[in-house]
Amino acid sequence: MALSGIQIYKMLPQTNCKDCGFPTCLAFSMKLAAKQVELSLCPHVSDESKEKLSESAAPPIRLVTLSANGHEVKAGNETVLFRHEKTFFYKPGLFIRVRDDEAVETIREKLALADAYEVVYVGIELALDGFAVESVSGDPAVFAQAVEAARSVSQRPLLLIADDPKVIAAGLEATNGKGTLIYGANNNNWEEMTELAKAKGASLAVTAGSLEGLAELTEKIKGQGVEDLVIDPGARDFSTSLAYATQLRRLALKKNLRSLGYPIIVFPGDAGDPAEESMLAAQAIAKYAGFIVLDHFAPEKVYPLLVLRENIYTDPQKPIQVQPGLYELNNPTADDPLLVTTNFSITYFSVANEVEGSGLPAWLLVSDAEGMSVLTAWAAGKFDAERIAKDVKRFEVTGKVNHKRMVIPGHVAVISGELEEELPDWEIRVGPREAVDLPAFMKQVLK
Fold it and tell me: Are residues 73 and 201 in the same domain?
């Protein structure tokens, strides 16, 4: 039975030593109760308390971290079925797969392009998380060459795929092994794969013919001392993949079934068709995958997956926001227009992109609306005349512009009168409702 934060706190040393990384034992106990950290972070807990707390405090889905040369991708440690219940914490890792029957130069070229791909979305840098190398040849030397080729062009985490432990061992020798995910352990090779994972400090993916088989195999492997496991339920079609992913999540969260409480790995690339691959990947992002392996890389295919992932794994209680302040668009002079909006990222970038794209210079006053959009902030009392007037003074707008004219969003035209009272010397103009209409408004009305 799950323990409350207070119950856990009573079993901790209560010294507030901060060795766990939290300011107080109470703060740490609350994180333990929420299953967001592990008990092992506390070096001073007694053996008696450890025995009582270890099972209760362990996250229902184990956190598995892949890392290499400063790059890191984490999966697991989730505590809810639906993001609106709380939030999702760790975005699934997106990997691009190559095979060792491809020429070494082809592998380098393909992965170099994917490794260099980065895009900025509402101020957030998006990129792929790592690469997978699969053995098709069955030759350890050939596989090692392919792994070396991948590592020569990218320092991101690697996933090594082969059934033969000797092939995997050769691949691990080509990299340092630690922080790598090896795939995969099955009923025939699990003992050798477990020894490799343990020796190299690698995480281990497990596959079996059924969920029951997975549960039995993970228990065996865990008993041998390897706990950083990833599971492949084996489904490759839409309906079965969705059913298995949902069932695994429910078993881990609702039934506290530890033997299946691990991140899920999926292979949309096995579909063959790039369009179907993208759809399977999108489903996997939305429904509980921890690691997603793709075969096809193209910016137009990867970008929507990265954006979808970002949107789903954004905390719904903490909107993406930009820093409030006075922004310059297209190098404005003191005589150019002053626009006002909120600090919700999508709102800010919608306005900024439209104005910058038009080439028209302007000042943009971004008011602190606690990350809410214009209408939402106005309805919540977070974007009103008083706040805007305070931000005019706080960001010293009058020291940057020669005039006293301000354009407010059309959706909040109702506050124009109140704003004139707060700023009696200013001329308040009501702009368009949509950002896309701003350039025309600026040319026709503000000329």
Answer: yes
The token duo for 371 is: 């990350």
pLDDT class for 2, splitting at 50, 70, 90?
low
- Tell me the mean pLDDT in the region 145-173: 95
Closest CA relative to residue 270, chosen from 305, 289, 294: 294
* Average of per-residue pLDDT across 372-383: 92
CA-based nearest residue to 330, from 445, 444, 442: 442
Phi first, then psi: what are they for 47, rounded to 5°?
-60, -40
Q: What is the pLDDT of residue 1?
A: 47
| Predicted local distance difference test score (pLDDT) of residue 35 | 67
Q: Once rounded to an integer, what is the mean pLDDT over residues 43-68?
A: 82
Residue 318 in domain: no
Task: Tally the domains of the chain.
Answer: 3
* Domain with 394 in it: 325-444
CATH number at residue 204: 3.20.20.20
Judge whether residue 193 has pLDDT over 50.
Answer: yes
Residue 239 pLDDT grade (very low, low, confident, very high; cuts 50, 70, 90):
very high
Residue 447 has pLDDT above 70, yes or no: no
Q: What pLDDT score was predicted for residue 318?
A: 77
Residues 391 and 299 in one domain: no
Rounded Cα distance, 301 and 287, in Å: 19
pLDDT (average), residues 190-206: 95
Q: Are 14 and 70 within one domain?
A: no
* Cα distances (Å, whole numbers) of residue 158 to 118, 179, 370: 18, 8, 39
